[in-house]
Amino acid sequence: MIVKTEVKRKRGIWKSLFSLIAVLAVFGSIVTSCQESEPTPNMPTPEETWTADGMIFVREYRGNIRNGDYSLHWWHDEQYIYIGIRAPASGWVAVGFEPEPLHRETDTVIGFVENGNTTVLDMYSTGDFGPCTTDVELGGSDDIIEFGGSEEDGYTTIEFKRRLDTDDEYDAKLTTGVNEIMWGYATLDDPRQKHLERGYDEINLE
């Protein structure tokens, strides 16, 4: 009887130990799951998540401004700036960097989507009210490295990437801190068409 009682006691201890291990394993998995669901400093950077697909996602950019229904989104690293534009237009959308009075001698990027095809032009305004001419036609270079766009529900979205300093005389050199911009959009895809809306603002490249 004493031997059987001792065996039962030992079996009970082992069962208790196994039960405790099982509880600890479940608790550990719950803690790990909670930790994984929380934001961490190792979240993907915009450089890792940015794609020129014509769609602007949360955390794809670090800065944004809004003027009415026109919005401009941006992020930069030591070499490049990444831009996203969204406006209520079936025509072109644009941003100009470091504009002069009116929009004389302004580095301008114009983009549009026509029949499902996206065009983004690196341009320069040669007069007070235009016209905008491509940098290449003026003897400069096309410095748009990547671009994409979409047109849906009455909105056009354009994304592009270029160097902060392209070393092209027809491009503004973008620097850390406040950079002035000009924005606009139109009802037609023709870059020669006058804007429907336009205005001025600034972006802070922190």
Explain what the structure shows.
The protein is an alpha+beta fold. The chain folds into two domains: 38 residues; 160 residues, Cellobiose dehydrogenase, cytochrome domain (Immunoglobulin-like, Sandwich), CATH 2.60.40. Helices cover 19% and strands 39% of the residues. The chain is built from two helices and eleven strands, in the order H-H-E-E-E-E-E-E-E-E-E-E-E. The strands form two sheets. The chain has a six-stranded antiparallel β-sheet, with no helix packed on it. The chain has a five-stranded antiparallel β-sheet with strand order 1-2-3-9-8, with no helix packed on it. A hairpin with a 3-residue loop joins strand 2 and strand 3. The longest helix has 36 residues. The radius of gyration is 28 Å and the shape is globular.
Number of helices: 2
Assign the CATH architecture of the largest domain: Sandwich
Q: Which class of the largest domain in CATH terms?
A: Mainly Beta
Task: Please provide the count of β strands.
Answer: 11
Q: Pairing-aware structural class of the strands and helices?
A: alpha+beta
Report how far the terminal alpha carbons are from each other: 81 Å
CATH topology-level fold name of the largest domain: Immunoglobulin-like
What's the structural domain tally? 2
